[in-house]
Amino acid sequence: VIISSVQRQARHSFFWQFVFHTYTTAFTLVNGNGTPKAKEYSLQQKQLLLGLGAISYSACVGALPLAFMNRYTLKNSLMHLVVRKLLPAPLLGLTSAFTVAMVRSPEFDNGIEVMDRNGKVIGVSKKAGEKAVMETALSRAVLFGTTFSLPEVLMYCVQRARFVKNPRALGPVRIFVIMSVLAGMLPVSFSMFPQCGEIKRADLEPEILSSTEETVFFYNRGI
């Protein structure tokens, strides 16, 4: 996150964002829902292929603003502000959510286990899988989108108030601010939605409901 945020060349930005999304994709694969039915599709052939495509696409999108700016040598200060300061944060948030959705997309197709209050598995639901993936994608977007955007605001305030008088000290201060925001946002992101998610009876498939009278069901959201 830190290295990606300080890049000024599109080629370097692409490389470091490729590394970043590779790590987050691997984290998503390891910490997804562990429904046994998910073993019926080929993890190596499907999820890894989707993950590689998502990583490459996300790295290209993340480096696109710098490529555009370097290509056309923009001199307008407003365009510099938009390209270098405003665009990277929402792009990183969106691409982070995109990689989660792509890598865990088999949960849309195969579904995940849903349980009653006693932990008894009552069926496999595609709607629960969709809800779990969307919640995880949203939390990931908030985590990295905020980590990229908030430090820019804080650094602007620091420079405007002249808290740091030595220009050489701005680099270490920026790194400290990014690390602090990331450390603060991690628990916020993980606690946005409960690990054991809830889904109402009306939101599940009819074939699951025929075997129980429960009104609320639970599922493992993943991280």
Provide keyphrases for this structure:
amino-acid transport; monoatomic ion transmembrane transporter activity; 66% helix; mainly alpha; transport; 223 residues
Q: How are the elements arranged and paired?
A:
Elements: H1 2-5, H2 10-30, H3 43-72, H4 77-86, H5 88-103, H6 106-110, E1 112-115, E2 121-125, H7 126-161, H8 170-190, E3 196-200, H9 206-209, E4 216-220
Antiparallel strand pairs: 1-2, 3-4
Helix pairs in contact: 2-3, 2-5, 3-5, 5-7, 7-8
Descriptive report:
By secondary structure, the chain is mainly alpha-helical. The chain has one domain (1-220). Helices cover 66% and strands 9% of the residues. The chain has helices spanning 2-5, 10-30, 43-72, 77-86, 88-103, 106-110, 126-161, 170-190, 206-209; strands spanning 112-115, 121-125, 196-200, 216-220. The chain has a two-stranded antiparallel sheet with strand order 1-2. It has a two-stranded antiparallel sheet with strand order 3-4. The longest helix has 36 residues, at 126-161. The model has no long low-confidence stretch (mean pLDDT 85). It is found in: Mitochondrion membrane. GO terms for molecular function: monoatomic ion transmembrane transporter activity. Pfam families: SFXNs.
